[in-house]
UniProtKB/TrEMBL annotation:
Predominant place of localization: membrane
Pfam family, one: Sugar_tr
The protein's name: Sugar porter (SP) family MFS transporter
PANTHER family given in the database record: PROTON MYO-INOSITOL COTRANSPORTER (PTHR48020)
Organism expressing this protein natively: Roseibium marinum
């Protein structure tokens, strides 16, 4: 049951990755269909993270009242409608609107799915379980790149975008047949249902052990501040969590990852790879490395811990970006293989640490009563920075060139490594209830 539920919730990661990555191959074809300026190109591409800002806010408003499951059901509907609308778009305005809709679903599901996974998983597997969401993001990106490569010779960008409706319908059926998060059930007085769900996902526990888990959830909920207001996020125990989770996502985005994901073929062109087929093949290579290293992350995150991986990831991406910037010097096509190797290394370091860890930290660190709103604050920071990076990338690239652009990303990664060294906490193997005791407002009182 745990494997089935994890696979299902992680499917929303696939939808996330597919709708982010598919634009990479579709964009050159779309610009031939519609007359788009560099600014228009940036806004159309960045419509997804812009919509995700609103999606994260809406999910925070309703994840506690409706439940994690119902929010994910609604996300499935919006994913399907947005994908079909994008494929049928008769003009740039409709395409932007469809991508805003997809962003809405991505933002909401990116908050609700990791929350759902973290609240289902046993403490010793929680890192791997929540990282499954990030793994499926990378699988979605790779799938979209492969579809782009197959359909690009046909110029079929509409099919590229519309095919996102297929996994959306699968996830809709699956999540409709699934139970709710046991911690949400316990938080809302459905003790017996919570016991049943925990028994299903952790069948190795005895009845007494399952009851003890629910007792712990109810005890931490009872000790939490009753209907806490937003001011509680400024309390002594909660404020550091807010600052750290927001900063982790900011550094994740300014590392340049989504510039690479959204504009991979364009980057390949600047690196010296000629021909759209060659550029897309190199892009698929990036997708493969992304998936493989995220699998590695699932195996090491609960063994080596969150903090050392985060520090290693930022150091590795910084060094890789230095290589990329050097290899992208003008009129040096012989450096193209070095640029590709640098991109592969960058993706590898990102996927094993910077990619999954902010999502994992976000789902772990906030107390239960504050989790949906706290995760929303971190998600809004994530998507806002995502929008700025994706929107500005083609403009910055046009004005300052590839070398300066990637050097800037390298500087941000260096700052991320310094930040992680001083502030990244370790939560490996610690139950959500134990983490809550460290950061609950009541503990600070």
């Amino acid at each position: 049951m745990l494997i089935r539920l994890v696979s299902l919730a992680a499917l929303f990661g696939l939808l996330f990755g597919f709708d982010e990555g598919v634009i990479a191959g579709a964009l050159p074809l779309i610009t031939k269909t519609f007359d788009i300026s560099a600014t228009g190109e940036g806004f159309m591409t960045a419509a997804v993270p812009l919509g995700a800002v609103a999606g994260a806010i809406l999910a925070a408003m309703y994840a506690d009242s409706l439940g994690r499951r119902k929010v994910l059901i609604l996300c499935s509907f919006v994913f399907a409608i947005g994908a079909i609308a994008a494929g049928l778009a008769s003009g740039l305005e409709i395409l932007i609107g469809a991508r805003l809709m997809l962003g809405l679903a991505i933002g909401a599901s990116a908050l609700a799915a990791p929350m759902f996974l973290a609240e289902l998983a046993p403490a010793k597997y929680r890192g791997a379980v929540v990282s499954a969401f990030q793994l499926m993001i990378t699988v979605g990106i790779l799938s979209s790149y492969l579809i782009d490569m197959v359909l690009e010779p046909l110029g079929a960008w509409r099919w590229m975008l519309a095919l996102g409706a297929v996994p959306a319908l699968v996830s809709l059926i699956g999540i409709t047949l699934s139970p709710e998060s046991p911690r949400w059930l316990a938080m809302n007085g459905a003790r017996e249902k919570a016991i049943k769900v925990i028994g299903l996902v952790q069948p190795d526990l005895s009845k007494d052990q399952v009851s003890h888990v629910v007792d712990e959830i109810e005890r931490t909920q009872a000790s939490a501040v009753s209907e806490p207001g937003w001011s509680v996020f400024l309390s002594e125990n909660v404020r550091p969590v807010v600052i750290f989770t927001i900063a982790a996502f900011v550094f994740q985005q300014v590392s340049g990852i989504n510039a690479v994901i959204y504009y991979a073929p364009i980057i390949m062109k600047h690196a010296g790879f000629d021909g759209s087929s060659t550029q897309l093949a190199a892009t698929v290579g990036i997708g493969v490395v992304n998936v493989l290293m995220t699998v590695v992350a699932m195996f090491v995150v609960d063994r080596f811990g969150r903090r050392p991986l985060l520090i290693l990831g930022f150091i590795g991406t910084a060094l890789s970006l230095v290589v990329i910037a050097y290899a992208m010097q003008a009129d040096k096509p012989e450096l193209a293989p070095l640029a590709l190797a640098g991109l592969f290394a960058y993706i590898a370091f990102f996927a094993v640490s910077i990619g999954p860890l902010p999502w994992l930290y976000m789902s772990e660190l906030f107390p239960l009563a504050l989790r949906s709103r706290g995760m929303a604050m971190a998600s809004v920071a994530n998507w806002s920075c995502n929008f700025v990076v994706v929107f500005s990338f083609p403009v910055v690239l046009a004005h300052f060139g590839a070398v300066a652009t990637f050097a800037l990303f390298g500087i941000f990664c260096t700052l991320g490594a310094i930040f992680s060294w001083f502030y990244a906490p370790e939560t490996k193997g610690v139950s959500l209830e134990e983490i809550e005791m460290r950061h609950s407002p009541a503990a600070a009182a």
